[in-house]
Write a structure and sequence with these properties.
Layout (H helix, E strand, L loop, with lengths): L27 H10 L3 H8 L6 H13 L17 E2 L5 E5 L7 H4 L7 H12 L20 E5 L12 H16 L6 E5 L1 H13 L16 E4 L7 E6 L4 H6 L4 H21 L1
Parallel strand pairs: 2-3, 2-4, 4-6
Antiparallel strand pairs: 1-3, 5-6
Helix pairs in contact: 1-6, 5-9, 6-7
Amino acid sequence: MAGPALIEPGSGWPEDPAAAATPVARDAAAVVALAAGADSIAELGARQSVCRACPRLVEWREQVAAERRRSFADQVYWGRPVPTWGDERPGILILGLAPAAHGGNRTGRIFTGDRSGDFLFASLWRCGLAAQPTSVAAGDGQRLMGARMTAAVHCAPPANKPTVTERDTCAPWLAAELAVLPELRVVVCLGHFAWQALWPRLAAEGIEAPRPRPAFGHGAEVTLTGPVARPLAVLGCYHPSQQNTFTGRVTEAMLDEVFRRARDLAAGASSAG
């Protein structure tokens, strides 16, 4: 049975950051303007969550929400862009690729409701960055402590593969996020796509990467400086996809090692400050 294609902003969905009056970006130029004009991380998340700038992604995310997977046939899907979520003054930003069609696109919270999220949140909990070891649905009591999650692309893409144009259209949301997180000290990139998406956004903030650009790898670490007196560490981490976790390419211990390192870097920067 088909359901609604999306949850209307301000209609009562738990943790919905938007209201009926939240401005909607309908093309790339509007994304640039609305991202730059957001005066808080909360308003930025609200504007992300109603974006309609990429026609292919809008069509796909709403089609998935209407048709639904059989195992979730009795559930209502979010069906909108999945916004940034977590601590509003984080030392750590966790950057992923894009929401899963039946994960974040269903629950409305990034990395929530799928196997990748199960693996990720368990590690964050073990490392003291999450209040609970699981993240099942928006409004379930989960919260992040000193960390925030976002994505290079905020809509679930077909085959989990956004196009270059879609990545670039979504990029101003990430650039704006980096600009409004004054205590940010560490970015953890989950996978090669997130790693590649980050560097141009850092350059836009005046934070230049070494040349040649650092190669992605699990445990890769690069410390950068920018126009303000704050070092920023970028850490690479294999994505906790089902393929990677089932094959042992990434294990619980490997994920914990990265997040313990991120936690210690952020804590050290905070103590030094």
